[in-house]
Write a structure and sequence with these properties.
This protein has about 160 residues and is an alpha+beta fold. It is about 50% helix and about 25% strand. It has a 4-stranded antiparallel β-sheet with strand order 1-2-4-3.
């Protein structure tokens, strides 16, 4: 049980390397996150790195989060830029689009938690626009079936 006691006091983030790349004007941080395998998301990792290294308003981009099989360790590689424009120049735009999508999902989830009653009310309205086209298509399909049966009888 000595291992469990040591584990409680261990930091979740262990720095593997911290390199200041002056050529590309960025800081490259590689860290191990212990005990978070399968649980850590990129936005949570960004927040943890920001708090650990006191980066403030700098742009942090998670490049890679690698799970190790058989271990509860995640190795993360992050690039820290002073300027967002420079970051967008150097890094693939798909990375930024994925980050924006995950941020949007997080914001939507927070809004859903704040006001769950309002969503239920809007969906339960009778005569909503979503229901009307379904009724119209049912009526149209009945008309076409009636026409087809009349054509068959006439032949």
């Amino acid at each position: 049980m000595k291992y469990e006691e040591d584990f409680r006091y261990m930091s979740l983030i262990q720095t593997v390397s911290d390199v200041n790349n002056t050529f590309l004007s960025r800081r490259e941080i590689t860290c191990n996150f212990t005990g978070l395998a399968g649980k850590l998301k990129k936005l949570e990792a960004i927040d943890m790195i920001n708090k650990e290294f006191s980066l403030g308003e700098k742009v942090i981009i998670p490049i890679r989060l690698k799970n190790h099989s058989g271990k509860s360790i995640i190795t993360g590689t992050f690039f820290v830029y002073d300027d967002e424009g420079l970051a967008k120049k150097h890094i693939n735009p798909t990375i930024f689009s994925r980050l924006e999508k995950s941020k949007a999902k997080k914001v939507e989830a927070e809004k859903a938690e704040e006001t769950p009653g309002e969503e239920i009310d809007t969906k339960s309205e009778v005569g909503s626009p979503a229901e009307k086209p379904a009724e119209e298509t049912e009526a149209k399909s009945e008309e076409t079936i009636g026409k087809k049966s009349q054509e068959e009888k006439s032949e």
